User: Fold Putative magnesium/manganese-dependent protein phosphatase from Actinoplanes missouriensis.
Amino acid sequence: MPAEVGTIPTGASLDALVRRTRLPNDRRTPAAARALVRSVLEETGLVSLLNEALLLTTELSTNAVVHANTELEIEVTADAGGLTVTVTDFAPGPVEQLAVGPKNESPDIGEVAERGRGLLLVDHFASRWGTVHEGDGKGVWFRLDQRSGSGAAQIRLPQHGESPSLGALTGLLRSGNDRHTDEGLADLAADLLSRLARLTGAAGGVVRLDRGDGMGRQLLARYGRAPRDNADTIRVPLDVHRPYSGELELDASPVGYAQALATMVAERFSLHLENDRLRRADVRRQTWITFLAEASELLAQSLDVNLTMALIPQLVVPRLGQWCAVHTTDAWGRLQLAAATHAEESQLADLHSSLAETGPESILARLEEASRLGTQVMFGTPSEGYAVPLVARGTRLGTLAVGRHPKHRHDADEVAVLEDVARRAALAIDNARIHDERRTVARTLQASLLPPALPHVEGIGFAAEYVPTGSEVGGDFYDVVPFGTDQHLVVVGDVSGKGVQAATVTGLVRDVIRILVDDGKAMSEILWRVNRTLVQRGGGRYCTLAMASVTRKGTSLGVCLHLAGHDRAVLVRADGKTSFVGEGGTALGLLETITSPDVVVTLDPGDSLIFYTDGVTERRRGRELFGSNRLREASAPLAGYPADVMAARLRSTTINFSVEEPRDDIAILVLRNDA
Assistant:
């Protein structure tokens, strides 16, 4: 007969054993409650009630932990007639009077509240049960009577069919605690489905699941024959969060306990699916974070506009789509295709054709809409995808379009990642453009500090090579200034630092030298005045300078060389012998007075004199410097070559010394007697 629902039994005998304890809101609380009940039963000799008592205690304590979220009070009373267990929580709100089980003639158990599903077992096995509300606490109690001659509490049978055994129910509810893989979930679903079918007498059943990955609803498990679409079929949706969805179908009539057990099994399996969803979401989130970090690093390494735009589609495909296209906005606001790629190379031509099509429903129209509105726009067939505007520092630079097959649409996480990629790509493009503009400005300014061309003089060869570095103007410069009759002044200098200030000082030094040469000043006076100018107006910057006057003396060239803190020049004789010439002096701009001894060198026909800046000698390969001795060794085989060939070869040798980008500007000037 059905369990009696009423008030908690009172008037226990004086020999009754009472145990009461308060337990924290913790996942280990059900185990502690079971331990308390077990100890009372063993102490009073009521071990025949052990299985039922532990099962019902677990259900009540678990329900309280999950739904009340407060401490629990467990009271266990044992007497000669049986056992009474009361589980009380302290959550606010009224006591829910839950009625479950076949209490009337209707074969359908009707709607069962969420916590009432746990009470289904209480109603099934308890002799009596009910609810209590005392002070701040409210709870549920159950009574298991000791039946004479049976050794266990009498198990009641429902009206419809044979009731499942305690062992079967326990196995059903405790199945699969550690299923963390796809195979594990499929095995768990198959196990639960087979147990449920045997308990309800169903001919078969299926569990279908859609993970929201574009594959649709897939068959996860099947038992027996597939349920037929008729009234004798139980369908229970799986209680999971998006993008997961699914259902459990059972080929059984929804009467008696079949519907409730199917619902209970669906809920138990939904918990495992939810864990699987959260685990996959966490793994996927970590994957996306790693992807964005790697994409940012790759984009940051490129400061070339065209290379950056070509790199963006390669990062996106195939991770976020089958194809990707980057369009940039021109001066009139029109979109121009900058780069595109497709996962299948054979489809690239068709992709370019699709992107070139015009019309209100074309992809280009959607891209223009995204660029105009500054928001993402979705486009449909023949390829599902999104157009995301490229915006950096408030400026619209173009669009990023990504498409994929209609069966594999982008989910919310992918769209969010796509927007993040678009933001990072826009910043990378803008940074590359700024860098390119700065480099153009720097090279234009640097070119203005150098002579457009060296003079062509009969019998004298002048040649120079200059290698700028980075996007900033360097302080290296060279010049050849004619003066007097058949005389020239050769200047190679290096102003400390980089940037606009260094360029200003470089221009100042160069202009002062030219003015003083035009005034016919001697080299010693030129150096003295340049030094005074730098001390007064150089802003703390100094300059090293190699200055040489070149005079024709028959077939030879007379060279008077002054070094103001500059490296010695390399003398290359026609026969290949080399040496360093010049005596060190004081760098300009550091002291009020300077010393600059002069050295006279005679260049016979075929002889050369090589001037250079420290960008050559300080060229690095790891910890190793190129050095002046290596420059001298590289110059010897060049004896006999024209000045321009010597300068070009020395430039190539210096650059090829290391795979690294030059850290300092490189300037080389060659003077050769071509008589």
User: Anything to note?
Assistant: Residues 17-146 form a domain with the Heat Shock Protein 90 fold (CATH 3.30.565.10). The radius of gyration is 45 Å. Residues 1-6, 96-115, 149-162 have pLDDT under 50 and may be disordered.
